Amino acid sequence: xxQITNQLQEQFQQRVDEEQKIxxxxxxxxxxxxxxxxxxxxxxxxxxxxxxxxxxWITRAPSLRRKAILLAKxxxxxxxxxxxxxxxxxxxxxxxxxxxxxxxxxxxxxxxxNYPTLSWADMxxxxxxxxGAAILNQIPLCRTSFGPYARAMVxxxxxxxxxxxxxxxxxxxxxxxxxxxxxxxxxxxxRWWWPSLMMFGPKDDESPNSKLSMQWKIKRFTNDELRxxxxxxxAEQIKLLGMVLPxxxxxxxxxxxxxxxxxxxxxxxxxxxQGNGPCNKERLEARKKAWADGAxxxxxxxxxxxxxxxxxxxxxxxxxxxxxx
Amino acid sequence: MRLxxxxxxxxxxxxxxxxxxxxxxxxxxxxxxxxxxxFIRSKQGLDxxxxxxxxxxDATMALExxxxxxxxxxxxxxxxxxxxxxxxASDPDATAEFFEPANDKIYRHPSFYDLPxxxxxx
Lengths: 325, 122
What we know:
Number of strands of chain A: 2
Shape of chain B: elongated
Number of strands of chain B: 3
Strand content of chain B: 15-25%
Oligomer: heterodimer
Distance between the termini of chain A: 64 Å
Low-confidence stretches of chain B: 1-10, 12-29
Strand order of the largest sheet of chain B: 2-1-3
Radius of gyration of chain A: 23 Å
Strand content of chain A: under 5%
């Protein structure tokens, strides 16, 4: 038995090494399946919870144009959550099980969404920094070894680029505005910068799952590699806004050809992940309330579908009867 | 060692364990809406292509949800939905045997035939 499993495992690794995609009904190591279920469902939960901080500003967007954009972005996020839940379901976990894990606190979601959105400028900063960081994580996932996940990510990435662009445009406008607007812009950047860096996860030497995920080509780059890419990208882009990043240690390193940056507050990261961030409780409560308040709609739709199906069945049998000679 | 997945997605069940029946029997107990596969024709003249899946109470809702989830940017002009339990799939563990008959028939390909270069329009 063990020998067979070893052989299957070898074949599996060989397929992965040859860049063949793994599809849901193919044999896969149990740990591969579990790792993917955890990662994809966390990703899906992040999209769903990620709607909440932005939903906060839909009714207070400064113009109809901004409101329409924000609505479209939030709707995209709902869609991204659905693509991802579907991909996870191919691994043998049900949608309801995943919801249950989210609502009970067993499953995690990206810690970034546990920070509050205090001003309109936060909508810009989230689009530019948070979605910018997400995109860097997501682009390599389009080539991840599990087929349904890779296909979902292709869709997500196509749609995500407008999220980042609208965010930068929003901040660009504020940066050209009044003194108060400029301050609002800088303040939002100050508050979102460090949490965005934390989105890439723990440092490589403290990331226990990374090695196996790289071997299975679920991940293509390490946390620190992606984080560095992000810093290099943003440190240049911010010049166009005429703003500064809140890091006195940030400076170009001629030798490495990268930006050096200061130490991340990992204590804060751990606290937020463990549920002690500024909005953890509020986010989960809002999500649970939405699910509970929607129960009657789900039940009604089921009842309606059953009723229609019955009607149709009755009509069919009636027609058959009247057709009897 | 074969892992049987009790899930009906992407044609994820062979004829072997009658996926459709199993799910129909479970339907009373589970409150989850059934799963549907979505196929989209991106423009006139092209095939419908599998886009993904979703949950819906009935076909009408499945079509409307498919529109909202999969065609927010004009990706389609026609949608098919089919309940996942109705999809039957070939067995991935038997791929080699199943498709074997095609392997040794290279004479089905035009390049098999060695003809003089002077032959035109062929």
